Amino acid sequence: MATTMTCQEFAPLSRKGGFDMIDVRTRMEFYEVHAVGSLNVPLDTLNPGQIMASRGTRAQEPLYVICRSGSRSAQACKAFVNAGFENVVNIDGGTLAWIAATLPVNRGTKKMISLERQVRIVAGLLIVAGTALAAAVSPWFLVIPGFVGAGLTFAGLSNTCGMGMILARMPWNKSLKVQDCSGGGCCSQ
Q1: pLDDT in tens, 107-124
Q2: Residue 173 domain-assigned?
Q3: Domains held by the chain: number
Q4: Same domain, 106 and 62
Q5: How far apart (Å, rounded) are the C-alpha atoms in residues 56 and 47?
C-alpha cells in the first residue's frame, strides 16, 4: 500500500536531494511550475514497470509522486501498487502545497492554462451552447447541459474527471518538450 507524506514532512529530504520524484500532471501543467528535482510522467502515459526498471539500483528506494493537488498522484500510486510496487509515496496536497511550503520550484517562461481551468472552460461552453440551442432549435439540446452536469457530479463524487482525462490527451497539452526543464533552458527558478 502506498503511503502519504505532507510537503512539510518532505522538506528536509528535498533540501538533502537524492530522491526520485515523478510529477503526473500534463506536460503543459508541468512546464508552468514544478517541484525542483521532479520528472514529468503524465498520468495517461504512466507505465509503473518501465519507470521502476529505469530507476536501476534505486528501485528499492521510495518513489515520490506529485500532481497539482494530490488526486492524480494518488491514482498513480494506486497503479504502482496494483503493478506490485509498494514503495511509493503520494505527496499530499501536490504542487499547490509544495509552493505553499516554499519548497523550490522551476517556473516556465510562458503562462499556460491549467487542466482544471480547461475543464471549467469547456464545461461552461457546453452548458451555454446546449442551453442556447435548446432555446433556439429544440428542447432536446438540453441533454447537453444535463450530460455535463451529470459528468461534473460524477467527477466530484469519484474524484475522477473524464473530461480532464480527454483534455490531457489534446495536442496543446502535449506540445512542449519539458523533460529538459532542469532549472535552466526553458524554465527559471
Answers
A1: 887 777 777 888 999 999
A2: no
A3: 2
A4: yes
A5: 15
